Amino acid sequence: MLRKIMKGGHRKPSKSDGNDFGFGAPRNSGSGPANNVVVNHSSRAAPGPPSPHTGSAIAAPPPIWLWKDYGQLSRGNDKNGFSEYIPLLLRYVVSSDTDTKVAKRYIDHSFVLKLLDLFDSEDPREREYLKTILHRIYGKFMVHRPFIRKAINNIFYRLVFETERHSGIGELLEILGSVINGFALPMKEEHKLFLVRALIPLHKPKLISVYHQQLSYCITQFVEKDYKLADTVIRGLLKYWPVNNCQKEVLFLGELEEVLEATQSAEFQRSMVPLFRQVARCLTSSHFQVAERALFLWNNEHIVSLIAQNRSVVLPIIFEALEKNIHGHWNQAVHGLTVNVRKMFLEMDTELFEECQRQHAEKKSRARDVEEQRELTWKRLADVAAQRGGEDMITV
């Protein structure tokens, strides 16, 4: 195919042009292979495959050595510049005329790393092109799949543990979403490690809101593929649960609901105690959106079913939070939702509900006794200090 394309006016690179990619750097003179290439700028209008052509061979995509020879995938010093060769590369990788055996000689590990470096672009159009290109490369070149996954892992590690910023995480996660969807069952240990070591830690950065939708999809795909991973995912969410970022907490609660929808009873039982301790803290949050989002969990029939099966464990954990909301939450919507949840538990198991009420009353009574004892102790200390008067005072 390359020979066919070169007949259309492309110079074959000489062996003297060799560099670590296989061909040399661009020459400073005006002559060279780049001047012989006619670029159809209208083809850059959209990141889709080119329209079909008929007739001469020059209608085929440019040869892959253009990007290898001239390093056109690099923007140089302009980080936000849009390389005009990226749309041409897209045309090449999506073309049905592309011979993967020939292209494999040029699309190697170094090429993939250069491509991945470009994902940290602030131009969303460029990231869309790159997403489609990398996805097609992943699909066509099976030999590169493990390396591509590993390279993406490394980008995630740098984000989580070093930089905490990257513009292309959402696009990379979109690619991984379709990759995860195609994982064969039973799932390989390598893929489970990818979930634990790469995806779950992505909940740590502050900029999670930029890519949370794609991350949540990837996480849910794992649980839907293998329900036994639900416990791992839930505990991972609890590990990175935000302490003082309410908007992030709302995102976590939304993702938690999606994970619980795919969770079966056995996995739910393994993590329900730490899970509902956290939910109880969310229920009493002074930020009404957090409390409201936590209460919305009871609108999900599957989650209510899991809770009903394990109500003897769940209700004692959250009962105090419900009572606190009933008697003291400032937001009227949260108060109304709490009343509904409380009523649901009462109808679910009246005997258990009354037992929780009794235990809660006893706990409040003990707390009052402790508070009274503390006040008496302080009063005695004050009396002793008053009796001694100023005996222990040092005068100058």
UniProtKB/TrEMBL annotation:
Residues 1-13 have a biased composition (Basic residues). Signal peptide: none annotated. It holds the Pfam family B56. GO terms for biological process: signal transduction. Residues 1-56 are annotated as: Disordered. One of its GO terms (cellular component) is protein phosphatase type 2A complex. InterPro entries: ARM-like, ARM-type_fold, PP2A_B56. GO terms for molecular function: protein phosphatase regulator activity. Residues 28-43 have a biased composition (Polar residues). It comes from the Eukaryota. This is Serine/threonine protein phosphatase 2A 57 kDa regulatory subunit B' beta isoform-like. It comes from Populus alba (White poplar). The lineage of its organism: Eukaryota, Viridiplantae, Streptophyta, Embryophyta, Tracheophyta.
